[in-house]
Design goal:
Layout: H1 2-21, H2 24-32, H3 56-79, H4 83-99, H5 104-117, H6 125-141, E1 146-155, E2 158-173, E3 178-184, E4 196-198, E5 205-208, H7 209-220, H8 234-250, H9 253-278, H10 298-310, H11 321-336, H12 340-365, H13 380-393, H14 399-410, H15 416-428, H16 441-453, H17 476-480
Parallel strand pairs: 3-5
Antiparallel strand pairs: 1-2, 2-3, 4-5
Helix pairs in contact: 3-4, 5-6, 7-12, 8-14, 9-11, 9-12, 12-13, 13-15, 13-16, 14-15
């Protein structure tokens, strides 16, 4: 009996100590049932509703139109308040709420999110973050293929919700965790900076297919024709032959032929768009952005001709006759090439494999990987990127593709990507990104990975990873994403 009393007292004292050390927001999370005893987020549905209470069509409309419309209306109302904008925000939220009305849990989550965001200027960022997580967790539990990625950004002295919505195109289980390939649904002008990202461990690895498609078309496709190497930037010129060899082994031979033949026209489109943009320095305001992979559609070609007419006699033309001829000719040839869409989709799916290895390595590493061989001065974020890069470079079939990508990302401003690349250059690329890569990259990267991180399981792509994803169905959102080059 005495021993039992002592045990109860010990547990009680431990509980007092633990709860006394918790932050008030953690105590609130526990009280609301939003955190478990390990202080991990958890969501328990409050209402019992049929699994198909809200149709897939309704959920697509919610994520494609209604949720983005409410976020934009809320942004307008909070940055430039007026009765009209307040009414517009209320109306957009009513439409969102009405669309999910058959599912009381979704109604409750959106109500709580709106209420949490209304607590300006003292918005509880962790509470908003939890509610977005809970929305995704609930949808996943209902086998709903939709996802919201959101962040709070300070603007005009207030915290604003920036949201992007996705449909899960494919979901697989890997040894490191879940792998989700996402298609962008909303058509807002928020452009992701990365090809993929990794957040909470339970979210697994997320690959952003629209950014992957843009990167594949802009950066990888032109490397597949050796005759174009002289027109590429130095890092791609240096990596092109090795990347082509990997592509030759990965892609269907008939589709690879189409990509080889169409690469010059695609590069011409990019060169003209860059040439037109360069004339901003002399005062031109004309620009070509969001260029579709197949070039300009007929209405856009007409607009280009109008710009050409308006440029006659100008010292700083919107577009020159030579540029217009190149762009229209390239667009027509690409549009008339049969089976080019499957070729581009297969190329982008292959690039997605490389991004998947990078992100799955992040999942396996957790927040900060242990790196006994790293310099003690190296920060945790840099170690994380170094781990993901060296792991993907050690993977046969995508190592050189990953190296080319790292050289592109690391060429930017000071960042963990940049610092990781500088370390890799010293150990794998003695001539830098502009020089020839090592012929034994896979082996050398594997040795460096062992030296830095010790013995660990290699990342393995799931066996059911598709050969080709359906990426080019007509979609305003998909076309709008084909613009700036992403980071990862």
């Amino acid at each position: 009996m005495l021993a039992r009393v002592r045990l109860v007292l010990a547990v009680a004292l431990l509980g007092v100590f633990m709860f006394g050390a918790l932050r008030p927001d953690a105590l609130l999370g526990l009280a609301r049932g939003e955190l478990n005893i390990w202080l991990e987020p958890c969501y328990r549905a409050r209402f019992d509703v049929p699994r198909d209470a809200v149709t897939d069509a309704d959920l697509r409309r919610v994520h494609e139109r209604l949720l983005p419309a409410w976020v934009l209306a809320r942004f307008a109302e909070t940055t430039r308040p007026s009765p009209e904008r307040r009414d517009a925000e209320a109306q957009s939220f009513f439409l969102l709420r009405h669309a999910v009305a058959p599912d009381a849990n979704l109604v409750s989550l959106f109500d709580q999110l709106r209420q949490a965001l209304s607590a300006q200027p003292e918005v509880d960022a962790e509470r908003v973050d939890y509610l977005v997580w809970a929305l995704n967790d609930y949808q996943r539990s209902r086998h709903s293929p939709y996802r919201v990625e959101a962040s709070l950004v300070e603007y005009a002295g207030r915290l604003q919700l920036y949201a992007r919505t996705y449909r899960v195109a494919s979901e697989m289980s890997a040894r490191q965790g879940d792998l989700r390939l996402l298609r962008r649904l909303d058509s807002t002008n928020l452009v992701e900076g990365d090809l993929g990202h990794t957040g909470r461990p339970e979210d697994g690895a997320l690959v952003l297919l629209d950014r992957v498609l843009a990167y594949s078309v802009r950066r990888v496709w032109p490397t597949l024709n050796p005759a174009l190497e002289g027109r590429l930037d130095p890092p791609r010129r240096a990596m092109a032959a090795a990347v082509r060899a990997e592509a030759f082994d990965a892609l269907s031979p008939d589709l690879l032929v189409l990509l080889h033949e169409g690469a010059e026209d695609e590069l011409s489109l990019l060169e003209v768009a860059r040439s037109v943009a360069d004339r901003r320095r002399c005062g031109s305001t004309f620009s070509i952005w969001g260029l579709p992979w197949r070039g300009l559609a007929a209405p856009d070609r007409e607009e280009l001709v109008d710009a050409l007419r308006a440029s006659r006699g100008s010292a700083c033309p919107k577009v020159t006759p030579a540029e217009a001829a190149r762009m229209i000719g390239a667009s027509q040839r690409l549009a008339q090439t049969r089976d080019l869409a499957p070729a581009v989709e297969e190329l982008a799916t292959w690039v997605a494999r490389a991004v998947s290895v990078h992100e799955l390595r992040h999942v396996a590493d957790g927040s900060v990987p242990s790196c006994p061989g790293c310099p003690t001065s190296m920060g945790g974020s840099t170690r994380a990127e170094l781990s993901a890069y060296v792991s993907s470079m050690a993977t046969p079939g995508i190592g050189y593709l990953s190296l080319m990508q790292a050289c592109h990302v690391g060429a930017g401003t000071e960042s963990p990507h940049r610092r990781a690349l500088l370390y890799l250059e010293r150990h794998l690329l003695p001539e830098g990104c502009d020089g020839s890569p090592p012929s034994d990259l896979y082996a050398r990267a594997s040795e460096l990975e062992l030296e830095l991180f010790g013995s660990r399981s290699s990342v393995r792509i799931p066996d059911d990873f598709p050969q080709r994803l359906d990426l080019l169905e007509p979609s305003a959102a998909a076309v709008a994403r084909l613009s700036p080059t992403p980071n990862r």
